[in-house]
Design goal:
Blueprint: E1 3-9, H1 15-32, E2 45-51, E3 84-87, E4 92-94, E5 97-103, E6 111-122, E7 125-130, H2 143-152, H3 181-184
Parallel strand pairs: 1-2
Antiparallel strand pairs: 3-7, 4-5, 5-6, 6-7
């Protein structure tokens, strides 16, 4: 059960803002720990306590309403304990799909597009929920370049999952301006 404790300056939050903070923190925990399942909200506990301003340090600057702060959200991700974690640079997104390029067996650097499932973000990395097996190699840097090359070669890519031919010289039937310039320039 996630427990979120927030300390704030006494009188800083109106009851309406306190309720909004409670709602947003609950939504955050539902997304992080509950995997987006709204039913998880009933297990989230949010405690908002108020203390006198003297108990807070603003780096010598008096704290005022609407000032921003920095904090760390700690959570236990026990349900993802055995999952693989990959760098965020390895993932390309196409709306609802998350894809990576997986190295194919052999000595040649051949990569194939694969859709994967992602869990929560951990700093600059993601938890993989499905689609990758331990020991598989993926592109972690230059993923967009690999995808662009695949698209130019007519192979499956982020924006072209079916691998439709996209070669620039494949424009039969297209009326190109200046097409007959050589014949008119005598």
């Amino acid at each position: 059960m996630p427990i979120v404790s927030v300390k704030t300056v006494q009188g800083l939050l109106t009851p309406k803002k306190k309720s909004e903070l409670h709602r947003r923190l609950t939504e955050l925990m539902v997304e992080i720990e509950g995997g987006g399942n709204p039913q998880f909200a009933k297990f989230v506990v949010v405690n908002i306590t108020e203390e006198p301003a003297e108990n807070f340090s603003g780096g010598g600057i008096p704290l005022k309403p609407e000032m921003f702060g920095t904090g760390i959200v700690k959570t236990s991700l026990n349900e993802y304990r055995d999952n693989m974690i990959i760098p965020g640079t390895a993932v390309l997104w196409t709306g609802k799909r998350s894809i990576v390029y997986v190295k194919q067996p052999g000595d040649e650097p051949i990569f194939k597009l694969r859709e994967i499932g992602l869990g929560p973000m951990l700093g600059e990395s993601y938890v993989v929920t499905d689609g990758l097996a331990e020991g598989e190699e993926i592109v972690t840097n230059g993923t967009f370049s690999v995808d662009a090359a695949a698209q130019l070669e007519g192979k499956p890519s982020m924006m072209n999952p079916g691998g439709v031919n996209t070669h620039a010289n494949n424009m039969e039937g297209m009326d190109m301006p200046g097409k007959d310039l050589k014949s008119n320039n005598k």
